[in-house]
Design a protein that fits this description.
Layout lengths: L1 H13 L3 H16 L3 E8 L4 E8 L10 E3 L3 H9 L3 E3 L21 E9 L2 E10 L7 H24 L1 H7 L8 E2 L1 E4 L2 E8 L17 H25 L6 H15 L1 H12 L4 H17 L4 H21 L13 E5 L4 H6 L5 E6 L7 H9 L3 E3 L13 E5 L4 E4 L3 H22 L16 E5 L7 H6 L3 E5 L1 H5 L7 H15 L4 E4 L26 H6 L1 H14 L6 E5 L5 H20 L8 E6 L2 H5 L1 H7 L2 E4 L1 H9 L17 H16 L4 E3 L7 H10 L3 E4 L4 H8 L4 H11 L5 H14 L11
Parallel strand pairs: 9-10, 10-11, 11-12, 15-16, 15-22, 16-17, 17-18, 18-19, 19-20, 20-21, 21-22
Antiparallel strand pairs: 1-2, 1-6, 2-3, 4-5, 5-6, 7-14, 8-12, 9-13, 13-14
Bound molecules: phosphoenolpyruvate and magnesium ion (MG).
Magnesium ion binds next to helix 22.
Length: 754
């Protein structure tokens, strides 16, 4: 059965369109399980009917004509229950109805299985038998497996409009495709498919006629790609901060890597012509990254392939054709690369949609830095049918609408207009003090690191930096930066904000943040060797970083050090000894360093329960709600499948935060919140009510949060918190907070989605 299954799946996958896939499938299934009939019905939500789309065994003229209203017949029963219905003698079943024009009454045995994707029934796959027949369990599971395979193809066809054409006339689409929200915001624009102008995998093997000439041809192509990348990099000057442009340095490094060059030349000398040698080298390099568990490193495989394609383009003497970019370009691709984004002329990029990738892919990082909405991981997007089509990108909820219906378009136009109006209103907050209506100051800090683009205005607005993620600059290099290199980098940040405080977090790698030159391969990386656990086992890395931080602070005195992923007091004691040691050594070496304030992150559940013991040992606490939420709720923060379960307004999260602020108050220590929750206006009042001292967030959230702070008094915030803490689920809390903001005249701050 398994072989048959594979064969059918392969044939169906090769079908050029959905109709052919369905027709192929019904034939193959009927033969495989020796039934008299096999049919597929698809759900048509507009007309609320299950439409016969393919059959073998029933009258072929019934295809497209038989439309069973929802709930009607055994097919209706399968769709309604979303589970298989296996009836030996169908006409005897109370839900059986006879359908004309199909020859239905001749059949007795009936098995129907639902075709389901993401909990939604898309259709029903049915087999029928002339005689009484109860289908076997393995036949049921066989159909199940096929139905699951078919679900993806149907979703594709729905998104591209193909299904509407099949089920009767073109209708504007109100459905959406789901992916991961990689950058918030809404874009309405036209899809431009960032296509692979050159298909490396399709290059055939050919002998090299003149190996030396072939090697020279290859080297010339590499040089040309190098020049292209440098040109792209300089084109981004002024549009992106230097740190983000460093992504191109990483690509250039990869391009110049000896293994890439030597391996290709070796293959050429071994007899292959340059394009095939390149194909082999790129495939083997990409495979190494592909096999890595870590999503960040896996993304590097697409960088390698991107480089390969670029080299091939030059090898083929086929200079890249200039693409046409309409004014509101939404860049769409299987695996949109950083260079493809950079190629869009300034001011034309409205959004980015990628089938592959995650929140840590380069596409997502660049989209964020450029402030354009992005959705990644849209697995069902039929990319090759997208070019030139109208598209809406909902970067709040991670949704894509292809050929949106006028009603959907209007709704999003309204949202865009609101965003603009709100933008102007929010701007009014600039320069005003961040304090409650009863005059209590709530300093707002910035989260920054590689991905954030901070202009002078944004810097001026902030009370300082509440979280500087030092690992991000480490990521785009090919080795650990040395003490002086780090010191220089930290000094720049400290100087930029002095005398305002800057909280530098020590290296927090592991989990989803991997360094290319320090791979950690684990089955459960979020529960493994990450953050401070690595620092404790590699004191040399930690000490180098601390020394760099202390040196950077000489003469400034605004440095604070934050320790991530603390799960027990022993870790803090040990790390503080190391910090003291670095400090004393530097003094002995004649550097005028001073001891900075040291804090710990509360982002592991055990730290919540020991917040008091931790507070006693350090100068401040900073709550990392991103990790705390994932650990409390046991939901991977990067996994789209469980994204619905990840909710920072979950009562368990709120209660954990509350107990941390209480513990900190007992020891008179300030508490900051530096996870995404700090930038969510729905949570601001709750955090104020808990007595959180400062909030640290990305630059884009600062004025919105300030608006909330300036609209509420501390006693009112405590009252509202008291009500919210009695609620039993996140939706209830969300609705309550939305109503509260609405009553306060802050409805504009409520955004769709979580
Ligand atoms: C957090 O976990 O909330 C946090 C701020 O750290 P990061 O997002 O870098 O893990
Ligand atoms: Mg964290």
């Amino acid at each position: 059965m398994l072989d048959t299954l594979h064969r059918i799946v392969n044939t169906v996958n090769r079908a050029p369109n959905l109709q052919e896939a369905l027709t192929t499938l019904v034939r193959a299934v009927r033969d495989a399980i020796d039934s008299d009939v096999c049919s597929i019905y698809l759900v048509d939500e507009e007309s609320r009917a299950n439409v016969l789309m393919a059959t073998v065994g029933l009258e072929s003229k019934a295809v497209g004509r038989v439309r069973l209203p929802f709930g009607r017949g055994l097919v209706g029963l399968v769709a309604e229950r979303a589970e298989p219905v296996n009836v030996a003698d169908a006409p005897a079943h109370p839900r059986y109805v006879r359908v004309h024009h199909t020859g239905e009454t001749r059949f007795r045995g009936f098995l129907g299985v639902p075709i389901i994707q993401s909990r939604r029934v898309l259709g029903v796959l049915v087999v029928r038998q002339r005689d009484v027949r109860e289908f076997q369990d393995d036949e049921v599971t066989f159909l199940f497996t096929l139905a699951a395979q078919l679900a993806g193809a149907i979703t594709h066809a729905r998104a591209s409009g193909e299904l509407d054409e099949l089920t009767g006339g073109l209708r504007p689409v109100t459905r959406f495709l789901a992916g991961q929200a990689a950058n918030a915001g809404v874009a309405i624009g036209t899809a431009v498919v960032s296509y692979q102008a050159s298909d490396l995998d399709a290059v055939p093997d050919r002998p090299a006629e003149d190996a030396r000439a072939e090697c020279q041809r290859f080297q010339r192509a590499v040089e040309q790609v190098e020049a292209d990348l440098q040109r792209l990099q300089s084109r981004l000057e002024g549009r992106l901060p230097e740190e983000d442009r460093a992504l191109f340095d990483a690509l250039l490094l990869m391009l110049r890597s000896e293994t890439l060059l030597l391996q290709t030349e070796e293959l050429i000398h071994g007899g292959l012509w340059a394009p095939a040698a390149l194909r082999e080298t790129i495939a083997s390099h990409a495979a190494i990254f592909d096999e890595m568990d870590d999503p960040y490193l896996r993304e590097r495989a697409s960088d390698v392939r991107d480089l390969g394609r670029r080299i091939l383009l030059h090898l083929e003497h086929d200079a890249p054709r200039p693409m046409e970019y309409p004014p509101h370009t939404v860049l769409v691709g299987e695996d949109v690369s950083a260079t493809q984004i950079a190629e869009v002329p300034s001011g034309r990029l409205a959004g980015v949609v990628s089938v592959g990738g995650s929140g840590s892919s380069h596409a997502a990082i660049l989209a964020r830095a450029m402030g354009v909405p992005a959705v990644t991981g849209v697995a069902d997007l039929p990319v090759n049918r997208m070019h030139g089509r109208p598209l809406i990108v909902d970067g709040y909820r991670g949704r894509i609408y292809v050929d949106p219906a006028p009603a959907v378009r209007d709704e999003y136009q309204r949202l865009l207009a609101e965003e603009r109006a709100l933008g102007a209103e929010v701007e009014g907050m600039r320069g005003l003090p961040s304090e409650t209506t009863d005059g209590h100051p709530v300093p707002l800090y910035l989260n920054t690191g590689l991905i954030d683009q901070l202009n002078g205005e944004e810097r001026a607005e902030a009370a300082g930096v509440g979280l500087y993620r030092t690992e991000l600059p480490f990521m785009v290099r090919d080795r650990f930066p040395g003490e002086s290199e780090q010191a220089e980098k930290y000094r720049r940040v400290l100087q930029l904000f002095a005398p305002r405080p800057v909280v530098l977090r020590t290296l927090d790698i592991g989990g989803d943040k991997e360094l290319p030159y320090f791979p950690v391969k684990e089955q459960n990386p979020f529960l493994g060797w990450r953050g401070i656990r690595i620092s404790l086992q590699h004191p040399e890395i930690f000490l180098t970083q601390i020394r760099a931080m202390l040196r950077a602070d000489i003469g400034l005195g605004n440095l604070q050090i934050l320790l991530p992923m603390i799960s027990g007091v022993g870790e803090v004691d040990e790390l503080q000894q190391l910090i003291r040691r670095a400090h004393d050594e530097l003094l002995e070496e004649g550097h005028a360093v001073s001891m900075p304030r040291v804090g710990v992150m509360i982002e592991v559940p055990s730290a919540v329960y020991q917040a008091g013991e931790l507070a006693r040992r350090v100068d401040f606490l900073s709550i990392g709600t991103n990790d705390l939420t994932q650990y409390l709720l046991a939901v991977d923060r990067n996994n789209a499948r469980v994204a619905d379960l990840y909710d920072e307004l979950h009562p368990a999260v709120l209660r954990a935060l509350r107990s941390v602020t209480e513990a900190a108050a007992e020891f008179n220590r300030p508490v900051s919140v530096c996870g995404e929750l700090a930038g969510n206006p729905l949570a601001t009042i709750l955090l104020l009510g808990m007595g959180v001292t400062t909030l640290s967030m990305s630059a884009g959230s600062l004025l919105r949060v300030k608006w909330v702070v300036r609209s509420v008094s501390r006693s009112r915030a405590r009252q509202i918190l008291g009500v919210a803490l009695r609620m039993e689920d996140a939706d209830q809390v969300r609705r309550f907070m939305e109503n509260t903001l609405e009553e306060m005249g802050l409805a504009g701050l409520i955004r769709p989605g979580k």
